[in-house]
Amino acid sequence: MDKTYATAAEAVADIPDGATIAFGGFGLVGVPIVLIRALLAAGTSHLEVVSNNCGVDGWGLGELLSAGRIDRVIASYIGENKEFARQYLTGEVEVELTPQGTLAERMRSGGVGIPGFYTATGVGTMVSEGGLPWRYAPDGTIAVTSPAKETRQLDSLGESAEYVFEQAIRADFGIVRAAKGDRHGNLVFEKSARNFNPLVAMSGRISIAEVDRIVEAGELDPDEIHLPGIYIDRVVELTTAESTELPIEKTTVRVRGNN
């Protein structure tokens, strides 16, 4: 089955307002920026976003955020996005902060049909006991807090400990970035740009990939494939200009001497 789409606009055209969308990327690495901008151009709004973070000011998911298109975010951290912090603290966006490894496993579980799992991460904290601020009121008071989660005493490796139950994430759409893909949707990621991308694609009921280069079926060595095409429904090839837009989150240089 040929899963290629001619343009990013066509690939996201049926994503409705109010959809839950998981996005790949970590900081500015492996971010599906072309598909994000296609959503921005389409005017899609009231989104629930699942992502490690919400981009930075003016780039990545930060573009959707600054345009007021996002209502709710499930993420590991707010990071260095000042607009994200501002919208969270003023009650414009609801934020469910989740431990990073837990977020990864919640998406993976959703992709493989596991409804939830027990983990020791967060036990004895507000993660399990509830009370994390999900939404603030405009006056700075807390309007919505996280609920308490189910915990159980379980035996693991001969020791009894308390674990908290975390629900899987099954997004309406998963949107990812890869280095190479074939027409069947098999994907290869570039080094650290793999990050959350495979898990995001697994979690989406419909998953869309933007790739730097499309190759013909059979050109990818099976041992080279990081994500099988069963998880991908649509593939868009980027232009050279699109694939080479790779900003640096922090530029760090050393002070040179006089010689």
Task: Describe the 3D structure.
The protein is α/β, with parallel strands linked by helices and about 260 residues long. The protein has two domains: about 5-115 and about 170-245, Glutaconate Coenzyme A-transferase (3-Layer(aba) Sandwich); about 115-165, no CATH class. It has eight helices and 14 strands.
Q: How does the major sheet shape up?
A: 9 strands, mixed
Q: What fold name goes in the CATH topology slot of the largest domain?
A: Glutaconate Coenzyme A-transferase
Helical/strand content category: alpha/beta
Strand content: 25-35%
Q: What's the CATH class label of the largest domain?
A: Alpha Beta
Helix content: 10-25%
User: What Rg do the Cα atoms give?
Assistant: 19 Å
How many extended strands?
14
Number of DSSP helical runs: 8
Any idea what the CATH architecture of the largest domain is?
3-Layer(aba) Sandwich
CATH superfamily of the largest domain: Glutaconate Coenzyme A-transferase
Outline type? globular
- Low-confidence stretches at least 5 residues in length (pLDDT < 50)? none
**N-to-C terminal Cα separation, in Å?**
61 Å
Q: Regarding quaternary structure, how should these chains be classified?
A: single chain
- The averaged pLDDT comes out at 96
Number of domains: 2
What structural keywords apply?
259 residues, alpha/beta, 8 helices, globular
